[in-house]
């Protein structure tokens, strides 16, 4: 598939889903471009940030960027954050990188399963706006991003607490009330 049809398909899908939340179509499109820009900036910041000694997950929601994963040295953690802050459209950076060796493939598989379990629970519970909450799991830690009310955030947090395997919950919500 060439780049132009892929971009058009992405824009069409974004238009279809634009009624599914309180973010504008522009915010949704911006987020789709922020992640790869931040990743590219981090790659250029230091070779060790893309080497097997680091595992960095970049996620954005409404211009708020989450850096999660592991890197072996604190100066690399700081370099990743600085690189992320330089990207146009980034409003805030939550640097949750841990100064550790990267997690194993098994741990990452467990994280994926945990994210799936959390999202499934959210979609099954009408008190939680699952379509407006992004869930990222890294090393057993569940990060929650989204535009929600305080009540919705509390419901989501309670729901996540009930999911087996969650080590910790980090709320990075933007509140609408």
Provide the descriptors you would attach to this structure in a database record.
3-stranded mixed sheet; GMP Synthetase, Chain A, domain 3; Histidine-containing Protein, Chain: A; BON_dom; Transpt-assoc_nodulatn_dom_bac; 45% helix; 177 residues; alpha/beta; 5 helices
Write a structural description.
This protein has 2 domains: 3-99, GMP Synthetase, Chain A, domain 3, CATH 3.30.300; 105-175, Histidine-containing Protein, Chain: A (2-Layer Sandwich), CATH 3.30.1340.30. Helices cover 45% and strands 24% of the residues. The chain contains 5 helices and 7 strands; from the N terminus they run ααββαβαββαββ. The strands form 2 sheets. Strands 4, 5, 6 and 7 form a 4-stranded mixed β-sheet that branches. α2 packs across α3. The protein is globular. The protein starts with a helix and ends with a strand. Mean pLDDT is 88; it is low at 13-20.
């Amino acid at each position: 598939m060439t780049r132009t049809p892929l971009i058009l398909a992405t824009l069409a899908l974004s238009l279809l889903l634009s009624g599914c939340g309180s973010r504008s179509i522009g915010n949704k499109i911006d987020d789709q471009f922020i992640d790869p820009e931040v990743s590219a900036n981090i790659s250029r910041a230091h070779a060790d940030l893309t080497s097997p000694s680091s595992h960095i997950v970049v996620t954005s929601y409404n211009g708020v960027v989450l850096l999660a994963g592991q890197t072996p040295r604190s100066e690399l953690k700081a370099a990743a954050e600085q690189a992320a802050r330089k990207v146009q459209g980034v409003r805030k950076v939550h640097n949750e990188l841990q100064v550790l060796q990267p997690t194993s493939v098994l741990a990452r598989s467990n994280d994926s399963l945990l994210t799936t379990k959390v999202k499934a629970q959210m979609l099954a519970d009408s008190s939680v706006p699952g379509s407006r909450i992004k869930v990222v799991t890294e090393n057993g830690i569940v990060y929650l991003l989204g535009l929600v009310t305080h009540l919705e955030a509390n419901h989501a947090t309670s729901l996540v607490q009930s999911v087996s395997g969650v080590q910790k919950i980090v709320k990075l919500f933007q509140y609408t009330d």
